[in-house]
Structures are given as structure tokens and as C-alpha cells.
DNA sequence: CCTACCGATCGGTAGG
DNA sequence: CCTACCGATCGGTAGG
């Protein structure tokens, strides 16, 4: 048995580099992270890192592409699992929210990428994500005919805003929660339910029962 | 008459530095902007810049504080101008949206600051903005009693999410609009109205008339 | 994947 | 507000 640090087989160098780079870029930004820091985190020398990625820019693009690819892989499954109707909607929105909540760095990474590299993210959104959001907005428009969905919804714009809202809310959640009133300093639990409510009430037609209550 | 570039009296050096720094930080981020670039933009040497601000970090903090101060100055006026009811609400939300739309860099700067310096922004939000958002959510809660506001609204969380949503939407608007279907490449007009609709329908109680239509 | 090394630029200081 | 200059670090290359 060889005398290396670990007995468990490691993932490939590229994967290990991407893992650490994603993490560091999300927390400190692309410009706020040096190749040296990435190399240290991975446990190799800086020039070795540049053997796997031709430049820092190439590393950035790989990180972003990988993120979108992961999403592109997850989204069809979510859409397949949850179709029409309020219940299914809840599942889908919940899945979107959970996708980012379970790893808030994802949300911060996307937000940073959108600010630092708008053209690249635009291209990836268009190529990889738009087909799915079109499918979703078509489904919403069908829901209008059956009376479940509000007539005044702009389906495409609504989907866009919801994605932006969820990512933004998760990315800066720990900051904006400073606006909530609690005397105890830290970590007020994040008002997830209100976000779900905003999404739901802006999409579904009010029932007569609901209106009578008011 | 002296032989300088301009006859119009210039604002103080500090103001000119803050102007350019705000602009550059918003577009390229704090770590993506060098003191040299700021100095060039202002038209002075780098050490002169450091005479006015003790360090790059001090410059960053001044930029952020100035932004919040500007907001703190604007917000009371907005609140005074627009009180209760759907009309007044429209004014207020519109004013918030316009505040960032007229200068999208403001939105990008806040977003970047929240990502790069969460503790600082949290502190400033709490100290400078929270009193006003409390006032606003109290007003919303009063609207519940009169039946104008939905019973299920979590006023504080709603206000927080709306602020976060508006800033996020403006900051990354040019990117997320890539999800909209238009074949022509550039600048699909940003779906502002749908954002307003999301805000309104998630806040106001549905009228019986509205429900009958569905 | 490493050692050795590059020019350029970084934030910041000394001294006037 | 300037000139002159600092050590540290940046992304990246040569060569193995």
C-alpha cells in the first residue's frame, strides 16, 4: 500500500480544482480569489493548476458552465415530477428554492457571475435554461384557460422574475434579514414561507371563497 | 481667468473620488477595481487619492455609507408622499423601483456590497433603513384591519422580500432577460409591469369582483 | 505535476 | 496634491 495521505481514491484533479474554485469564487468573487489560493485549497502548486486550466479566465468559465450544466440536469427532473395545479406548483417552486437553499453558495456564485460576466451568463441562460422556462410558461398559459391561473399573469416574465427572486433572496438572505425585527443578534430564520406565498398569490386566480373572506 | 480644463467650479476632491469609485466598484466590483484606476478616472495620482482616503478599505466603506445615506434621505420623502391605499402603494413601489432603475449601478453596487461585505451592509441596513421598513410594515398591518391587505401577508417579511426583489431584478435585469423569447438579440424591454403586478397581487386582498371574473 | 522564474501591477509609504 | 519608491503578490511561462 502506498504511503499517501488517504486510502480512498480521489476524484480527478480537474474535479477537485473545480470544487475548490467554485467554493472560493462564490465566497470571495473571481477577482477576490487568486490562483494561489485555489492551488493551496486543492493542495497543488499554482503552475500545476495552470496545466489543467489554460488560464484563470478558463477556470472561471468552466466553473460557470459546470453550474449551469448541473442545473440543466436537475431542472428536467423537477419539471417531470411536478406538473399542473397548485400542489404540483408548490413542489416545483419548493424544489427550485431548495436547490439553492441547500447550497447558498450556488446562488451567490450565479449572482456574482451575472454581475461580473453578464454576456457569458446571458449566453448560457439562453442556450441551456431557456428551453425549460419556455416549457414552464407554456404550462402556465394553459392554466389560464382552465381558470387556475390569473388572467393578468405574464407567464414568461413571471418565470423570469421568480428565478431571479429566488436566487437573489438566497444569495443575500443573511444580509437582508437585518431588516427584520428581532432583538437577538444572529440568524433570524429566513422568511421562506413569505417568499412562497408571494409566488403563489401572484400566480393563482383567487377563489370565490378566498374573496368572500376578505 | 486661470488656464485649467474647465471654467465651472469643481466639487471637492472627496466627492469626485467617491463618484468615480462608486461607478467603478459597481461595474467591476471592489476587488476588480484598482486604486490606480480610480485615480486615473478622477485625474490625480494614486498617492493623492490615499491622502483623502486612508486606505482602499476606507474608500469602500465610504462608498457604501454614502449610498445608504442617499437612500435614507430619499426614503422618508417617498413615505411621506405616499400613504395608505392601492394608489399610494403604487406610488411608493414605483418610486422604489425608479430609484434603482434610473441608476442601475446603485442596484449592482448594493448587491456586490452585500456579497463582499455582508456584516457591514447588515449593520447599515439595521441602523439606517430598518426604522423606515418597520414604519412601512406597521402601515401594512393596519391595512389588514380595513380589509385592503391580505390577511396572510407577513408584513415585515414582505417588505424585505420586495426590497431584495427590486434590487436584484434591476441589478441582474439585463442578464435574466435572456430567458425571455425574442429573436432579436439585444435589449428586450425589461418586464417592469410584471414585477409591479407580483408585488400588488401578493399584498392586496382580492376584491369579490376580481374573484367572480376567475 | 514540479521547481524556478518572469514582468506587471497591487496597495501603501516617505518626504516634500 | 506630487515624485519616487517599497515589498508583496498577481497571472502566467520555461523546462523538465
Number of separate strands of chain A:
0
Strand content of chain A: under 5%
Low-confidence stretches of chain A: 1-6
CATH architecture of one domain in chain A: Orthogonal Bundle
CATH class category name of one domain in chain A: Mainly Alpha
List the chains of the largest interface with their residue counts: A-B, 66 and 66 residues
Distance between the termini of chain A: 73 Å
Please count the helical segments of chain A: 10
Oligomer: homodimer
SSE order of chain A, one letter for each helix or strand: HHHHHHHHHH
Structural classification of chain A: mainly alpha
The CATH superfamily label of one domain in chain A reads: Tetracycline Repressor, domain 2
- Overall body shape of chain A: elongated
Mean pLDDT of chain A: 89
What do we call the CATH topology of one domain in chain A?
Tetracycline Repressor, domain 2
Biggest pleated-sheet summary of chain A = none
Q: Rounded to an integer, what's the Rg of chain A over CA atoms?
A: 21 Å
Percent of residues of chain A in helical segments? Answer: over 70%
Can you summarize this structure?
The structure is a homodimer of 214-residue chains. Chain A has helices spanning 13-28, 35-42, 46-52, 56-81, 85-101, 104-116, 118-145, 155-176, 192-203, 208-213.
Can you give a write-up of this model?
Two copies of one chain form a homodimer. The first copy, chain A, is an all-alpha fold and 214 residues long. The first copy, chain A, has a domain at 60-207: Tetracycline Repressor, domain 2 (Orthogonal Bundle). Helix content of chain A is 72%, strand content 0%. The first copy, chain A, is built from ten helices and no strands. Chain A has helices spanning 13-28, 35-42, 46-52, 56-81, 85-101, 104-116, 118-145, 155-176, 192-203, 208-213. In chain A, helix 4 (56-81) runs parallel beside helix 7 (118-145) and helix 7 (118-145) crosses helix 8. The longest helix of chain A has 28 residues, at 118-145. Chain A is elongated and about 65 Å long. The N and C termini of chain A lie far apart (73 Å). The model of chain A is unreliable at 1-6 (pLDDT under 50). Chains A and B meet through helix 6, helix 7, helix 8, helix 9 and helix 10 of A and helix 6, helix 7, helix 8, helix 9 and helix 10 of B. The structure holds a DNA duplex (16 and 16 nucleotides).
Amino acid at each position: 500500500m502506498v504511503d499517501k495521505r488517504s486510502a480512498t481514491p480521489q476524484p480527478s484533479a480537474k474535479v477537485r480544482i473545480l470544487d475548490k474554485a467554485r467554493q472560493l469564487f462564490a465566497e470571495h468573487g473571481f477577482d477576490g480569489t487568486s490562483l494561489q489560493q485555489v492551488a493551496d485549497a486543492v493542495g497543488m502548486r499554482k503552475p500545476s493548476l495552470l496545466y489543467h486550466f489554460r488560464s484563470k479566465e478558463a477556470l472561471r468559465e468552466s466553473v460557470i458552465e459546470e453550474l449551469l450544466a448541473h442545473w440543466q440536469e436537475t431542472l428536467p427532473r423537477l419539471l417531470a415530477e411536478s406538473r399542473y395545479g397548485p400542489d404540483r406548483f408548490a413542489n416545483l417552486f419548493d424544489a427550485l428554492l431548495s436547490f439553492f437553499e441547500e447550497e447558498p453558495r450556488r446562488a451567490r456564485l450565479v449572482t456574482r457571475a451575472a454581475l461580473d460576466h453578464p454576456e457569458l451568463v446571458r449566453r448560457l441562460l439562453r442556450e441551456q435554461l431557456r428551453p425549460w422556462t419556455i416549457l414552464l410558461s407554456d404550462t402556465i398559459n394553459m392554466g389560464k384557460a382552465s381558470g387556475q391561473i390569473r388572467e393578468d399573469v405574464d407567464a414568461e416574465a413571471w418565470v423570469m422574475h421568480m428565478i431571479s427572486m429566488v436566487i437573489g433572496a438566497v444569495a443575500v438572505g443573511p444580509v437582508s434579514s437585518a431588516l427584520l425585527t428581532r432583538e437577538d443578534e444572529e440568524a433570524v430564520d429566513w422568511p421562506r414561507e413569505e417568499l412562497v406565498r408571494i409566488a403563489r398569490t401572484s400566480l393563482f386566480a383567487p377563489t370565490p371563497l378566498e374573496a368572500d373572506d376578505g
